[in-house]
Amino acid sequence: MESISYTFERLFSATEDSSFAKGTTLELHTDLDSVAVSYASSKVDANQLRLRLKEGLRLGTISFDNIKTAFANQLVDKIIPHWYGTPWSFGGHTAVPNKGKIACGYFISTTLRDMGIKLNRYKLAQKSPIDEAKMISCGSVINKVHQNTPEKAFEEIDNLTTEGLYFIGFDEGHVGYLLKREGELFLIHSNYLSPVSVCMESLKESRVFKRFNKFHIVSISHNDTLLQRWLDDGSVL
């Protein structure tokens, strides 16, 4: 059985006594078969979560705010971590974590699809960042940030966002997830700079972030239309 060793930065839940700012790197030794099985199980769990939340909303036992939080936590803490350490390449489009390579757009489209959002991952991944933002927005607001320094861009993004998960497009050149958790902003993406793989890093310290001055930001976890389509198994693309 083929074995691999890789490193990823772990996202902690809000209940754990950990500092995001310091960052944590874990060395894992695993095998490709177990990764594939674990990931398949996580996709099943996401679908079961969707069905439970839909029924809870119908019965009035949960609110839509509960759904927003549950969706973001499942995607960020259960689906995405399998992908940490998967190598980046411009044409990478693997559908299995750590088997092959994955480009930034395919990382977004594949993880959203595997969370249970009905979309064509090829079509979404091949769109420009602004068109990808439009598709994910489902008609909701797209915040456009244009600043002449990374510091000013970070400040504006920080002011625009609340706790939750977002899509972020970098002008015409890159895409990723933007996560705000416990007041800290993180970029989760297939990074074409070091470590040249899927990772989570502080937005403020990201070398990719510092290379751009135009950004397109769309809420994912606060997007009622997108989440309702997810609940109803409706198509986004």
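[next item in queue]
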Amino acid sequence: MAVHTKPLKCKIGPSILNADLSQLYVESQRLLDNGADYLHLDVMDGHFVPNLSIGHPVVKCLRNKIRTAFFETHMMVSEPGKWVEPMAEAGVNQYTFHIEPVKDVIPLCRKVREAGMQVGLALKPGTGIEAVRQYIDHADMILIMTVEPGFGGQKFMGEMMPKVQWLRHNYPGLDIEVDGGVGLNTITACAEAGANMIVSGTAIINANDQKAVIASLRETVESSIHKCNV
């Protein structure tokens, strides 16, 4: 069981989905050098979502180059149970999977934990918060998608913020992540709702000054966290 009692920390995890994947190591290292707290690695199977992306061999290659950074894989796949061991072997720290295609969520949480990874549970925009309530104590983090999973560069869905607010109100110490369309124009809504883990793709990757964007996102979130922690 996960314990949600630590003081909240802001963590910025750029999504590498929109990066130049032929330069994945260089781009990833630059993001970390510019202040990223972790890397958010989008894994898609062309089935659960209509797109294909990287798999565990790529993650393993990246881990061989980047030894110490925190890797989160966001498993947008129909059978997340299939990839637990390969991702653990590839050096993943947190395995975040969607609850929608999973019949038995708690045994899968246990499997992820036994493989030595933290557990993240993700919800698509159309999935209500009640679908995850019974599993929160088995997870280290809940990811609220603020776009339909599968493609980068979509418009942020502000109507997802009540889910974040509900989680923060009921689980003050829980890591809550938002992913999709998050950037300088939408970070305030996320921070005020209570998100502390921020996935941002296009807004960071395409920025002329990645360091400044990451610092600005962090500042907005930290001022809101301060109110939560007080």
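[queue empty]
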